[in-house]
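Pilot study result, target chain (127 residues):
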Amino acid sequence: MGVLLLLLKTMLKETELKYDRLFEEKVGFIVDLNAIADRLQGTGCCGCEPFEAEQVKLAFIKWLENHLESIEQNPEWFVRQNPKHFEKYLPELDSSFFPEEEYDWPAIYDGMQEGMSQKPVQEPANA
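Predicted structure:
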């Protein structure tokens, strides 16, 4: 039983290391991990100075991975923290998003106007 458990732990650790390397490779296409590690060490952020650059990069990768998981779980919170950069990439809604043949805009507008001009219906008071 002990050998099987040890083998399973070893396999999990190897899988985790492969995932870490793959994630690091993918992040490395987006950002310069060496520059980030140098900056974190150079500014003394979180006491990074005494660690090797590879250790700082791994810590950054794990930190980023944790943030991505949080974003996946609660994207609206993260977007609301800085909506300017999110909204910047949303297309502007104009008539090209609403084809003329699908909508009768004058009828829709008239219907909206009629709804606004009507007095609200009051619910009867419960006695």
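One observation from the pilot: The radius of gyration is 28 Å. A full batch analysis is planned for the follow-on phase.
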